[in-house]
Amino acid sequence: MRKLLLAAFLLFAGTAVFAQQSVSVKGTVTDKSNQPLPGATVQCLTVPGGTATDVNGKFTLNNLPASNQLKLRVTYTGYTSVERIVDASAGGIDTLKIVLSNTDALSLTEVIVTASTGSGNRLTSSLSTSSLKSADLEKAAPRTTAEIFRSIPGVRSEATGGEGNANITVRGVPLSSGGSKYLQLQEDGLPVLQFGDIAFATADIFLRADQTLSRIEAVRGGSASTMATNSPAGIINFISKTGATEGGTVATTVGLDYQNFRTDFNYGAPIGNGLSFNIGGFYRQGQGPRTAGFLANNGGQIKANLTKQFNGGYVRVYFKLLDDRAAAYMPMPVQVTGSNDNPTYTSLPTFNINHGALQTPYILQTQGLGPNGGPYTSQVSDGMHPLSKTIGSEIQFDLGDRWTLDNRNRAAFNSGEFIAPFPASVGSTSAMLNQIGTATGRVLTGATVTNAVTGQAYTGSQAMIIHMFDAKLNNFNNFINDFKLRKDFDKAKLTFGYYKSSQNINMDWLFNSYLTSLDGESAVPLNITTAGGTSLSNNGQYAYGAPVWGNLHRNYNVNYDISAPYAGINLDLSSKLKFDGSLRYDMGRVRGNYSGNVQRSYDVNNDGTISANEQSVSAINFSDAKPVNYNYKYLSFSAGLNYLIDPSNAVFARYSSGGTAQADRILFTSSIFANGGAATAYNRIDQGELGWKLKYDKGGLFLTGFYAHTKEAGEFEVTTQRIIQNSYRAFGVELEGVTNVSSNFDVRYSATFTHARIVDGQYKGNKPRRQADLIYNIVPTYKAGALSFGASVLGTTASFTQDVNQLKLPAYVYVNPFFNYRFGKKWSASLNANNVFNAMGFTEAEEAAITGGQSNIVRARSITGRTISTTVMFNF
Predict the structure, then answer these.
(1) Are 790 and 779 in contact (CB under 8 A)?
(2) With 80 as the cut, is the pLDDT of residue 46 above it?
(3) Which end of the chain has fewer CB atoms at under 10 Å, N or C?
(4) Which residues form the TonB-dependent receptor plug domain (predicted)?
């Protein structure tokens, strides 16, 4: 931390070294009807950097060279980009006006920043990319960050776990474990975590969207294999505002039919001498969209950056503090009748699957033996609790002779907790007692069950065995540096880079077991007493551990040190044909250890007596720690051609091969040898793309055919207690488009059709679990003066719950309407609903099959039912 702060100070103190005669260019960006375009990107191509227009369409570019050949580029989503040469040799310009035409509805002329080896736009590059601005996010009515990703073509986001714990992938690449193994989440061009699928610490847990967000860029396949590490399927990059143009926002959002209160703010401005800043964040409180029974969502974040513009480049330092608590939603019990091929899912009488939760106000704490071998207590209300303190910098300079330097680095100090109730088993009360008796070695014939809150006999016919997932995220610190040098020639661009990262994974698994009633709101803990009068429970907790699963107290303590040189080339083979190619060589050094479980008797509650549930208590067996000691290396490459048929029409082709290293999920499996070596340390994806892009007066179209072959090593999945190892092949078509039906009405749409199969192993020939043939999104929007309204319609066809291909998850569609009204230039109000028709839909399920012709209980994660919110926003 001290070294980073010292470096930042020295960089800013060196202003005089870089100072030359400089000027400012000020102006306004409007559409053809003279309406301002807030958020338009304005760049001077002569020097690195840029700015964005404020709410009145105004912009300022500082520290530009006093030249008669300043080349400006202005881009705005849905409008054709404009490049203009201006003469600033006699001094600054204060009244420049740039008018954009909305003939590029799909933003095909927008310049690509993420995972790009050059400075081409979407039309002239051989990449599949998308960009989302703040207005696009509002239309999706997201309740969590991961719900935003559903608006990106080709992306499959199972965003049903709350504010984090989502499963995210692209184009038929499998979801064989939780998180985003093959797709990387970035913030300002660097990964949030180096691995996206860490158990109980997925990357989206440490990422939030708020008013500091300028835009989201997404790259699917292509150079994502070579321009970043562990991201062969794609990259989603959150790009922050930088304050180059003065302006701010304060917004308050209130849940109208659920408990949520949130305030966002952002302000940025130039402050003279080439300096500008931006600061913002959010804070929220509430139970959330499900009936947790307590304050489940509580916290926020603050982000700030400071930029110094020089003549020929800029230096930026930034900071983020994230301290947020949010409920984690696990699969929940739902009634399923019919057959495996044609099932009917309905809520149980005591559990509303659209709004219910496994959390309960009657179990607010969980106890057991902690990593130090002594008693500990955790607060269930902490839920997913990321604590992230981040400091980083960006440096970009024109070195002369057409060389450009670009360096980004970040140190993130990450820790926290993941605590959530998981239904290990659901069924009749007697069946639950039988499972507990078998797992604990006790005879529970004739045992009685009582309500732990009232002390009365429990008369309910059904109950749940709850495993309280409690993962202490001790140390997930990472340090990342990405260094690039670019050289421009008349018809070529060369990129040379060196990437370095260090990622810690240090966590403890401390699981405990409860018996509760089957309720989706205020489930009560149930105490068990044997026929002989021996009490086995305390507030429903019958075990300090998870005996039904063989007990899972664990410690992971591993460091992943990664180095990756890379290079890229862009060639103009002709005025219409462009080639780009890139290589990356990843080298990993993995060192650490992991420890499993040991059982012992211990007086956990310190009452002086070893109770029945204290006779076999789980603890982490640090005395039998196993080593982790292996290295790995692999080569990734990507190459593509783009042919510009005419200024509005292009085709492209690309082939890529990349890898992603495995992390914690191969520990405790046969993939790790006794000496700490690894059988297979990474997975590979080979991908092909063939696409067509069209820009026309009334809209745009982006059509891509794709192929992906994924080869995986075995990895452990905690919820199913299985080792999953398969290879997969997928073909498909991805569509993204927009049609401007009139000057007031437009329709945006995307769809992805995927034909995916498992190609080896036990389930060869089957569809990968949870992989639908078709996912789609349609967003019609109507604008009438200050009023705009529309809806986001999202849908999916049916899929299978597991690779065995028996029980199906039904198709579903849900609708998110939105209304927005502007009261002048400063005030606006919006109303939106998520799942307004309260549709029922499921993204995953634990059970592979049901028994036809009878009522079954399946544990499944469902989309949240209807939630309505309103937002009041003030722009200044």
Answers:
(1) yes
(2) no
(3) N
(4) 125-235
158 within some domain: no
Amino acid at the residue 383: G
What's residue 857's pLDDT?
98
Q: Which residue has the tokens 């408990």?
A: 259
Q: Is 577 helix (H, G, I), strand (E, B) or coil?
A: strand
Q: Which residues are paired to 216 by β-bridges?
A: 132, 238
With a cut of 70, say whether residue 7 has pLDDT above it. no
CATH code (residue 96): 2.60.40.1120
How far, in Å, CA of 66 to CA of 857, rounded? Answer: 73
CA-to-CA separations, 304 to 204, 211, 319, 385, 476, in angstroms, rounded = 20, 12, 5, 21, 22
Contacts of the segment 534-539: beta carbons below 8 A, 24+ positions apart: 534/612, 535/611, 535/612, 536/440, 536/442, 536/447, 536/612, 536/613, 537/452, 537/613, 538/605, 538/611, 538/613, 539/362, 539/363, 539/452
Query: Which amino acid type is present at position 673?
Result: F
When pLDDT is averaged across residues 373-393 and rounded to a whole number, the result is 97
Domain carrying residue 37:
1-102
Q: How far apart are CA 811 and CA 796, in angstroms?
A: 5
- Please say whether the beta carbons of 28 and 69 come within 8 A: no
Do β-strands 512-517 and 774-784 pair in parallel, antiparallel, or remain unpaired?
unpaired
Report residue 6's pLDDT band, with 50, 70 and 90 as the boundaries.
Answer: very low
CA–CA dist 87, 106 (Å, integer) = 31
Contact call for residues 177 and 662 (beta carbons, < 8 A): no
Token pair for residue 283?
A: 């804070």
Q: Are 476 and 389 in contact (CB under 8 A)?
A: no
> Residue 236 falls within a domain, yes or no?
no
Q: What is the DSSP string of 7-33?
A: HHHHHHHTHHHH---EEEEEEEEE-TT
Going by C-alpha positions, the residue among 222, 240, 215 that lies closest to residue 303 is 240
336 phi-psi bin (left φ>0, alpha ψ -120 to 50, beta other): beta
Written as one string, the DSSP assignment of 297-350 is EEEEEEEEEEEEEETTEEEEEEEEEEEEEBPBPPPEEEEEEE-SSSEEEE-BTT
| Beta strands at 332-338 and 343-346: parallel, antiparallel or unpaired | antiparallel
On whether the CB atoms of residues 78 and 54 are closer than 8 A, the answer is: no
12 assigned to some structural domain: yes
Tell me whether residue 221 is in a domain: no
Start-to-end C-alpha separation, the chain: 34
Q: Give the H or E element holding residue 572.
A: strand 554-572
Backbone angles phi, psi at 225, to 5 degrees: -70, -30
CB 145 within 8 A of CB 165: no
What φ, ψ does residue 144 adopt, rounded to 5°? Answer: -140, 165
* Contact (CB, 8 A) for 308 and 275: yes
The domain total for the chain is 1
What is the amino acid identity at position 433? L
Which residues lie below 8 Å from residue 259, measured CB to CB, with a gap of 6+? 286, 287, 288
Please determine, for residue 390, whether its predicted confidence score (pLDDT) is greater than 60.
yes
* Residues facing residue 394 across a β-bridge: 316, 408
User: How far apart are alpha carbons 706 and 689 in whole angstroms?
Assistant: 5
| Mean pLDDT, residues 719-746 taken together | 86
Q: What is the pLDDT of residue 718?
A: 65
Structure tokens at 296: 């489940």
